[in-house]
Write a structure and sequence with these properties.
This protein is mostly beta strands. Helices cover 8% and strands 40% of the residues.
Length: 77
């Protein structure tokens, strides 16, 4: 994600939940996913390594890394 301005990306999203391990944002304005170019539904920023995610539904995922943080872009099927 070297060519992606992470701060600008996050500023376009709506914050939803945060805990010690992750912070989630909802894409309410149809921002394009930096990995696949399609609008994504949610962004999960992993703040701890390792981090476990409990997915309650089947999703397509795109992943990027910036420094020590993983960014997971979810796409609902």
């Amino acid at each position: 994600m070297d060519d992606v301005d992470v701060e600008e990306l996050v500023s376009s999203l709506t914050p939803r939940r945060e805990n010690q391990a992750v912070k989630t944002y909802q894409n309410t304005v149809s921002v394009s996913c930096p990995a696949c170019g399609e609008p994504f539904d949610d962004l999960v920023v992993c703040k701890q390594n390792p981090t476990s995610l409990d997915l309650t539904r089947q999703l397509d995922l795109c992943v990027g890394v910036d420094g020590d943080r993983a960014f997971i872009f979810t796409h609902k099927q």
